[in-house]
Each structure stands twice: as structure tokens, then as C-alpha cells.
Write a structure and sequence with these properties.
Blueprint (H helix, E strand, L loop, with lengths): L14 H8 L6 E2 L11 H9 L13 H15 L8 E4 L3 H14 L5 E5 L5 H8 L3 E5 L14 H6 E7 L11 H11 L3 E4 L22 E6 L12 E5 L1 H14 L5 H11 L3 H23 L12 E5 L5 H12 L1 E2 L1 E2 L10 E5 L4 H13 L5
Parallel strand pairs: 1-10, 3-4, 3-5, 5-6, 6-7
Antiparallel strand pairs: 2-8, 7-8, 9-12, 11-12
Length: about 375
Amino acid sequence: MSRFEPPPLVWETLGDLRARAEAHPGGPIDLTIGTPVDAPPRFVVDALARSGTERGYPPSIGSAAFREAAAGWMQRRLGVAVDPALVAATIGSKELVAGLPHWLRLRDPGRDTVLFPATSYPTYEMGARLASCRAVAVPRRPDGALDLDAVPAAEAARALCLWSNSPGNPTGQLDDLAAAAAWGREHGVPVLSDECYAELTWSGRPRTVLEHGVDGVLAVHSLSKRSNLAGVRAGFYAGDAELVAYLSQLRKHAGFMVPGPVQAAAAAALADDDHVDEQRARYRARLEAAVAALRALGLGATMPGGAFYLWVPAPAGDGDALTRWFASAAGVLVTPGRTYGPDGAGFVRLALVQPDDVVADLVERLGAARGPA
């Protein structure tokens, strides 16, 4: 058996494209990584600095204040009543996404397969690989929901978990969370619903799998996008009582603890909705401006169902060629769609997280460029 070699992240392999973009007058505009750039609320930064919790070990499952704030946020924004006892803290959400297959396999060694959306955030598949599990992609229907009828019975019988991501990265599509929860219960498969973009839902209201009951499901949330707090690494999961109890006990042994000051800041952020509404308005305006500029070039950009990405089809289905065009014609770095699975090869992803003045520059550059062939 060959030794596992961690692959580079795609953003570490864009050297030639980065050089092309840097040669553009005004330098590059980087739309590859979805990292927030806007300032977090001042009161949240103050809570981080003044919590007085830096001396002792924080509770791994999360402080009472943090878990109650998370439950209160879900009640206000998502319309679900969740007992704080069914909530637990995470160090952001990526560590949980990457680690869950390993921990679930310890719980159920007879299953070895992770089901995940065919076009998706690469960490779902990588989490399976890190746990020495099989990763099986589930296609999406035209409406964006997972096509669970396409999962063979033999794969369902081996499934350790099913990942959903709604709104989804990179496509912005919305899943049918009721159908996912029902499928998981029918097949005895935990459904893990990554909802880190829930506050950035553009098509209708924010949704959560917990609307359809907590049995057999976990909802995973993050403060990175909603509150511009990617740097503090704060998130949580909530749902099935047995799963939450199992994971919280395991994570105590492994030393997964969100720092006390971070928990205090997260509780403050979760208790406030105004700053989220302001950030939503910023992202929506940026997306709409970019969609208009791309459509003027003849590219088929549309507003996503949610999140702050544009998933743009490439002329002639060549996402790599369109990636090169953006770098050469406008000095813009975008992510080739193949990064998110074979089905994404005909697309590129744009992360509209840059400040308003940079987005205005983007629109101007696109307006001056000749459209791709």
C-alpha cells in the first residue's frame, strides 16, 4: 500500500495564473478564497478581549452562555426550538467536517462509506480519505437537491454518513433538507447538514435540517461568514441527542476546545442580528453587481440560491480556459470548477468577498474586456 501524501490545496497551484493576473495594470483581484474581509462588530471584538476566561480550560462542549446563544439564534433566525443540551462547540466548522468520518467509524466500524454532494467543498471527500473510508459522490437534481434515488442500495447499506451542504459551496444551490433527513432515517444513516451559509440565503428564508426533527441528524454552523469571524474559529453542531453526547465525550478526550475568549465573542455575535443583516446587504449588492457585469460579457451568471459565490458556466464547457481568460483579460483570479469534483469541470467559481471598491474595480475591468470566445 502506498503512503498517503496530502495533496496541495488548489490555491497553492495557481502560480502561472497568479503571474498573469499580477501583470494586469492595477494588479490582481483575487476571487479564489471565500475569506471575509469586512470588519467584525466592535462589540464582538470587545467581548473577545474582556471575557476574563483565558486562564482556565474552557468546557469542550461549550460554555452555557455560548450554547444558549446558539440555541437562541436558531430560534430567532431559523424558527427551530433546540435544547442547549443538544448543542456543542467546534473550532470553526472545517475541523468537524474533516474529523467526523473518523469518529463515526469508531462508533460503527461495520460501515465504511461517506456519501457527499458530487460538486462540493473538497473537505467532505478529504474527511473520508483521512478516515480510510470510501468516498461516494451523490449527484444533484436539476433543482439543486441531492438525487438520493441515485444512491445504490449497496452503498446505502455501507454508508457511515450523508453530507448535505445548503446553501452549497461552490454552486450556491439549495438542498431538500426534509428529503435528506427522511432518507437518512429510512436507511439508518446519520445526515450531516453543513449550513454555514444559512444566513446568506437569497432564495426564500434560511433553512435548517432541524426543522424536520433532530433524530439522526446534525446541523453544522459557523460564525466565519455571518459575522466575519473566520480568524477566531468558532462554530457549533446541534441535533441528535445520542450523536451530540458521543461526539462531545470523544472530543473531550481529544482536547478539542474552543478558547474561552472565543466562546465569549461568539455568544455576543450570536445574540445580535443587526450586524448580520448589514453584512447580508453587502454581499447581495456585490453579487448582483458581478452578475450584471458577467452577463454583459455573454457569460451565463445568475444569482445563487445562497452563499457568496458565483458558479459560472464556461463557453464550450472548458472551465480551465475560462480561468485563464479571467487572469489574462482582467487580472482576476478565479477557481477552476474541477476543484469541486469532475462535474464542475465546465465551470469556474468566483468568491464575491472583496470590499466594495475592489468589486467596483472588477466591474470596470470586466466592462473593458473582450468576452471569452
